[in-house]
Write a structure and sequence with these properties.
This protein is 21% helix and 31% strand. By secondary structure, it is of the alpha+beta class. Among the domains are: 86 residues, no CATH class; 250 residues, no CATH class. It is elongated, with a radius of gyration of 38 Å. It starts with a strand and ends in a 5-residue tail after the last helix. 37% of the residues are buried.
Length: 719
């Protein structure tokens, strides 16, 4: 029996090979066939669908249905006509798909409670929802969000509207987690083939192809079925290639070290002694800050060094360099500033008046700079700043996973609240004491910050992270019962009481601008002469300048069996991979008792034994709030590390590679990593099937190996 090949019932000529391929992707398979001119004209007029049939001399025939004759092609001579034939994917560029899936919108704002539960410093965050028109039909709400599989089918409806073949679209063999893959803010505005390619990009393991019946097929590349198809090909033809199993045990690493950027909370303290004038800048490695102000003068010479306007200097440096305000007044000092900050006495007005009398310098700007920055602007110890790559005014805890809002940096300090008439009226209603001013203790007495330590109602911000300048702005309470918040306590003996009987007994001032006669020097209202404040900020280590400044998570093949199965022996060297901070960071919260380990993480006191280094590693792992999968509001570093490692091990799995040619095998289909099948009838009448396996496996997107919760957090997805 001779080989017969027909297209739409017309016999194909043997003047050129008869070939048809199965190929994955959104682009059509296009082949040319030789016919007599009359048959070619009829098929071009008919268009399609037509069927390609190849009947070998032995075995089952190859039948490829629903092909379309596109046009005539140039033939060998006038007696041989040639036509171009394509599968149904040639229709797809003719369609246009316009879709928007799960589009975010801001519906309002909300306050997100901080861990310290201080209403004044609660962050205001956007409330995130979805535009109803971008959801599936039905009642608005999260249950009606588009899922990846449903969106894929929805895109296919527009594509198939242009496809007059109107064939079914079976979907099978897709990974079980496809429906849970994140899909948000997806805009499709493309031709049909490009639209489908974009949708498949959200499903890394999935692919599309057209089978022998002309049906659209979706399946998974990781099914492992390619080995069975290689066996189904039958005996390999000599000289037609060979399919073999490639073993990658020597390339698969024993373990994978995944490195994350560290974000570590640091505590910095300010300790202003009672006699602060003349104190020197901090030069040791202690975690301390200095009270500073920008030079208000055109230039200022301090210890033979000229500082231009805007340079940051400490208050003692500035006040010593300025000299006397006037001969009668003398030098501006801490005692004057402590008195000037108390309202009601208008000492600032007096200082501004005196500054107008001093014509040797711009004392007005000097006074204003003191008023703005005294006990409110600080500079981090430069030895510490030199080891910090980035400084952030937030803490490591995430308050709102929707948009990644972090808990704000906090300040623990003593402060004083000046009440309003509303406060007095409330006190009258509740029977509380009448007070012009109330002192609050925010800095812990023992210096240890615990879970019950309440921060001051202050907003901490980074003014200049290059120079380590921190700003503290004290805020009014949420009910607006306070008028002013002072940056430290008022001396208790000078605090006005608003009670005549008490003022008479203990000589306390009755108002801010009146004292008992004869007690002016010690009873004038003023801020306390000493002041302490503690900040907790977040810093990215810049030192040591090597991998030890990063957090390492070790992943072994045995840790990934539940994701990718057993990959076999792994005898290769360790593999180190970096995860960018844009995906996630390793976050470490501050605990006073473990300060030494955190300091050593920045390269201080690093000359320690290996045993101590191991202890530090365990301590830091305990301080990392998102190392394990139970991290709240932050993506687990271990989950991400497992996904990163799974990508590598999956791409190095033992798999079939190469090309093989056998007898015509119409039952061989695309499966797993089998990417191309070509059936051919040669000019000599020989029939064959050639299959192709890739040399290297594709590395899928990281999201393909993340669990649903981690994906949502990484993508800031609404939950």
């Amino acid at each position: 029996m001779t080989v017969q090949a027909t297209l739409g019932g017309a016999t194909l000529l043997g003047s050129s090979p008869v070939t048809w391929s199965l190929r994955e992707g959104t682009q059509p398979v296009v082949q040319t066939f030789d016919l007599i001119p009359a048959d070619a004209a009829r098929l071009v007029t008919q268009g399609g669908p037509v069927t390609l049939t190849i009947k070998p001399d032995v075995g089952s025939p190859l039948v490829v249905k629903n092909l379309w004759v596109l046009s005539e092609a140039a033939g060998e001579n006038e007696h041989v006509a040639r036509v171009a034939v394509a599968d149904r994917r040639w229709f797809w560029p003719y369609a246009w798909v316009y879709r928007r899936y799960n589009m975010r919108r801001r519906t309002g704002v909300k306050r997100v409670a901080v861990h310290a539960n201080v209403p004044e410093i609660a962050n205001i965050s956007d409330t995130i929802c979805f535009h109803p028109w971008s959801l599936r039909e039905g009642q608005p709400g999260q249950a009606n969000r588009w899922e990846a599989l449903d969106a894929l089918k929805d895109v296919m409806t527009d594509i198939l509207a242009a496809d007059t073949a109107q064939m079914p679209v079976p979907v099978y063999g897709l990974p079980a987690n496809l429906r849970s893959l994140p899909l948000e803010d997806v805009v499709i505005d493309d031709a049909g083939d490009a639209a489908l390619s974009r949708m498949l990009a959200y499903m890394p393991e999935a692919r599309v192809w057209i089978d022998y019946s002309g049906a659209v097929r979706f399946d998974s590349r990781t099914s492992g079925a390619e080995v069975g198809m290689a066996a189904a090909l039958g005996p390999e033809a000599v000289g037609g290639g060979h399919i073999t199993m490639a073993h990658y045990s020597r390339q698969r690493p024993k373990k994978i070290n995944v490195l994350f950027t560290r974000e570590m909370e640091l505590r910095f303290d300010f300790n202003e002694p009672a006699t602060a004038v003349g104190s020197a800048p901090v030069t040791t490695e202690v975690r301390e800050v200095e009270n500073v102000l920008p030079v208000p003068d055109y230039s200022l010479t301090i210890s033979n060094v000229t500082y231009p306007e805007g340079s940051w200097v400490t208050f003692p440096q500035a006040m010593n360099a300025w000299g006397n305000l006037t001969e009668a007044f003398g030098q501006l000092d801490y005692d004057v500033l402590c008195q000037a900050f108390v309202p009601g006495m208008d000492l600032w007005g007096v200082l501004q008046y005196l500054s107008a009398l001093a014509t040797d310098a711009d004392w007005g700007h000097r006074i204003a700079a003191c008023q703005q920055h005294f006990r409110q602007t600080f500079r981090i110890n430069q030895r510490w700043l030199s080891r910090i790559a980035q400084l952030k005014a937030y803490r490591v805890a995430t308050l709102d996973p929707t948009n990644g809002v972090r808990s704000p940096a906090v300040a623990y300090s003593d402060y004083c609240v000046i009440g309003t008439q509303r406060l007095w009226l409330r006190n009258a209603q509740t029977g509380a004491a009448y007070e012009y001013a109330r002192n609050y203790t925010g800095y812990p007495a023992d210096g240890v910050i615990g879970s019950d330590t309440r921060p001051a109602p202050a907003r901490v911000s980074i003014v200049d992270d290059d120079q380590g300048i921190i700003r503290v702005d004290y805020l009014m309470d949420d009910l607006r019962l306070s008028d002013i918040v002072l940056p430290s306590k008022i001396v208790e003996a000078s605090r006005p009481t608003a009670r005549i009987d008490r003022a008479g007994r203990d000589y306390s001032p009755l108002t801010f601008d009146s004292v008992i006669e004869g007690t002016e020097s010690e009873r004038l209202p003023r801020l306390t002469s000493s002041h302490k404040i503690a900040f907790i900020l977040t810093a990215v280590p810049g030192a040591p300048n090597n991998n030890t400044s990063l957090q390492k998570v070790e992943i072994r093949p045995s840790d990934l069996v539940d994701i990718i199965g057993d990959v076999g022996p792994c005898t290769g060297p360790e593999w180190t991979i970096r995860v960018g901070a844009g995906i996630e960071t390793a976050r470490f919260h501050w605990i006073d008792g473990y300060s030494a380990a955190i300091e050593r993480a920045f390269g201080f006191n690093n000359d320690r034994a290996a045993a101590q280094a191991a202890d530090d590693s365990k301590t830091l792992e305990a301080l990392c709030v998102n190392l394990e999968a139970d991290a709240e509001g932050a993506a687990s570093c271990r989950a991400i590390a497992r996904a990163v490692a799974a990508r590598v091990y999956a791409s190095l799995k033992d798999h079939a590679i190469g090309q093989a040619t056998g007898h015509l095998a119409p039952h061989v289909e695309l499966a797993g990593w089998l990417t191309d099948i070509a059936h051919e009838v040669g000019q000599d009448g020989a029939t064959m099937t050639r299959i192709t396996m890739p040399e290297k496996l594709q590395k899928f997107n990281l999201l393909a190996y993340l669990d649903a919760n981690t994906r949502k957090i990484v993508l800031r997805e609404v939950r």
